[in-house]
Write a structure and sequence with these properties.
The complex is a heterodimer of chains A (about 230) and B (about 260). Chain A has about 230 residues and is α/β, with parallel strands linked by helices. In chain A, about 30% of the residues lie in helices and about 25% in strands. Chain B is an all-alpha fold and about 260 residues long. Chains A and B meet through helix 2, helix 3 and helix 5 of A and helix 7 of B.
Chain lengths: ~230, ~260
Amino acid sequence: MLSEVTGNAQPIAIRAEHLTREIGGRAIVRDMSFEVGRGELLAIVGPSGSGKSSLLRLINRLDEPTSGTVYLDGQDYREIAPRELRCRAGMVMQRAFLFPGTVASNVRFGPLQRGERLSDDDVEKLLAQVDLAGFGARTVERLSGGEAQRVSIARSLANRPEVLLMDEPTSALDEELARQVEQVILDVLRSRELTCLFVTHNRTQARRIADRVLTVVAGAAVGIGKPEELVDA
Amino acid sequence: MLEAVFHDPIALGVAQAAVAAVVAIGVVLFARSRGINLVGDLLISMARGISQIVVVGLILAVLLKWPWWTSPALLIVMIAAAGKTSSRRAKQFPGALPVSLYAIGLGAGATIAVMTASGVIEHTAASLVPIGSMLIASAMNANALAFDRFRSEVESHVGEIEAALALGAATHVTVSPYSQGALRAALIPPVDNLRSLGIVWIPGMMAGMVLSGTSPLYASIYQFVVLAMIFVSASLTCMISTHLMQRRAFTSAEQLVPELSASKP
């Protein structure tokens, strides 16, 4: 029986129950159950192809689980309209995948889908949170990799998510840029008290940023614990 | 030269077909010597083509003696065959066959019905079947192009589409640039045909009308009418098919179908 709270006695933001996804008879996510407390940063580590990104895609419901489910703030996510779920559990992907146009139009994209147009002030505040104040009018083609990734974070934040799902958001960047973006992410998470599931193959990064670490191997969760308990493979 | 030897029109036709086939085989043999082997494809295509068109010729010969309202039955069979052919281009796109059948049936069907009702197409089998078949064929080609383009655009923009989905966008919003691109690409041939009419080419139908004694001026105007109908048929078909493709590309949970998504089997 899963407990109602995490080890830190925080209210539960995300609870995965027996989450499984099979493709062609092969389990890419296998019977995963875990909880993430509100405001907690859970790093998900494991080797390439172990199912880390697939797990995030299931939680954002970009893919459908073969069995099992996810509870978002106590509600079975199958009862939540997919579009609402994806706003509440925002996802930042490994690549920014910005839409053609300006930085501001990208930041406005999510709220605009619900008929809400962010003011210039709102856009500027979001950009300032990711250290890109004054970038609103810039076209996305003129951004560096690190800037593009920070825009994609601001774009997700514009939906006011309860949970951020981050799929190796710094892995496509060089070391210096990765550390800058990582710091921006940590600042945003702390200032907004956001819950975060952060996929990384970098164990050093997981130790540095996470409250707890979930280790995934061959689609299965093989351990969850404090970052200092994480051993190098 | 052949007319001097063959006086019977059927025998003349067979001789002309034989000459055309020999020349085509010569071309593919030359291509084979350059490392491009099309011999098998060509022989099968020629065998299919000649047998299909001869069967249609025989059916037409019978239909011409029947009342005009029997022609729609043949056109429905043509739409079914066009849907099947067109859907093959879509490879594993979910529901390609029903999408093609609906789109070609409604697009080409509505064009034929409106043009026949308004008198642009005569109420005779001799008009309905050949002109209807042209409209169906253009719808089939345009639909196949739209499928091909839409699928390749979606497959090469899965990241952008899923990024938009992950931001709470409606499914049709995430793929609308690609369905619009597919529609534009599919309509390039009929638009170019209209644009270059008379300058780059004189279509076979107009040539046939002139050869059979129709006034060249009327033949040219009617050829424009036919090409305009072809454009309408192809446009309607592609508008319907791209709309249906948008819907079929996603599951009820607003996920890209596995055949198109980043996590495809």
